[in-house]
């Protein structure tokens, strides 16, 4: 059996139609199949490869850390310079007050830690999240996720969570003094790159402040420069009480984080002590990779490139079959008539050497979320392939 057959035989499958391409290597914005075919990566492993695959500075930082040590001890006991350096760099580039970082291994885990912290800090149990928000697949994160189709089969989930319509200022009155936290994506990713209004985000911030509710912003997909600002909440002139990061933070290595003020985070040290525990959280190699990744993003101001590239995409992707483009920066969604047409275009893109997909909660939209290092020449090539694929599938 070849690897493709073994993949179907031995690896747990979650989709009836996995892409099942065999990739031999990946560099920059390209992946190369084991058959030598090259693919332009338009989705960055779902907003992960923000600085491209195998960025030299990230690879060097990983190598350097490998030569020192890998795992030493569970999170929070020993002083590890890669963790300290990452946490400090994050705090230096976040608003004052967001200066205490808990490192974990994934987005879902960071969500779990953040909502436990909110319950512990406020001594409340209610939580509010939003329809079509995606927060992860573990029980708590799935409970916050706002899509019945994904949740129904797994009930009972966490009690006390109420979902509101994303963008509805009228419904924010439902946040009250029983609400421990509101968990929201700053820009919804899996809903198909939905950007909320500034008025809504400001009203949300204000209502949380009035009711003593922690505002937890999930920027697992929207953070790290992807939407044209280093942090997506900057678009709305607000700041969260707790910020959640993962995906692009690691530069291709698994890491997640929730970040809050010291006063809030301190709750995890007492009553009970060890209020949140992780064996691998902040793994030294992953933390070194994340620190190098954040440095590349900062040194090159990659959020500015994301904005510049967005405007080229918007200019170039005009076609009668394309109904619109949503999103911000390099978290964009191209709208087609229906799922059938979208999936035909995506399959044709793949044949033409462009890797993309649809969104979990919006199958009429095609995902455009390439590495933030993409340049205009590469981007024009991507647009050529998309337009060609649209034409070929229309015939
Ligand atoms: N929140 C958002 C906004 C996400 O996009 C994702 C992953 N798609 C998650 C949380 C969960 O992250 P992970 O898959 O690393 O657990």
Your description of this structure?
The protein is an alpha/beta fold and 395 residues long. The chain contains 13 helices and 15 strands. The protein has 2 domains: 3-54 and 301-394, Alpha-Beta Complex (Aspartate Aminotransferase, domain 1); 57-300, 3-Layer(aba) Sandwich (Aspartate Aminotransferase, domain 2). Helix content is 36%, strand content 17%. The strands form 3 sheets. The chain has a 7-stranded mixed beta sheet, sandwiched between helices. Strands 1-2-3-13 form a 4-stranded mixed beta sheet. β1 and β2 form a beta hairpin. α4 (81-92) runs parallel beside α10. The longest helix is centred in the C-terminal third of the chain and has 19 residues, at 376-394. It starts with a helix and ends with a helix. 4'-deoxy-4'-aminopyridoxal-5'-phosphate is lined by residues 46, 106-108, 111, 134-136, 185, 189-190, 218, 220-221, 246.
Please write out the topology:
Layout: H1 3-10, E1 23-27, E2 30-33, E3 38-41, H2 44-47, H3 56-66, H4 81-92, E4 100-104, H5 107-122, E5 126-130, H6 139-144, H7 148-151, E6 161-164, E7 179-185, H8 198-211, E8 214-218, E9 242-245, E10 256-260, H9 262-265, H10 284-299, H11 302-316, E11 324-328, E12 331-335, H12 339-352, E13 354-355, E14 358-359, E15 362-368, H13 376-394
Parallel strand pairs: 3-13, 5-6, 5-7, 7-8, 8-9
Antiparallel strand pairs: 1-2, 2-3, 4-10, 9-10, 11-12, 12-15, 14-15
Helix pairs in contact: 3-10, 4-10, 11-13, 12-13
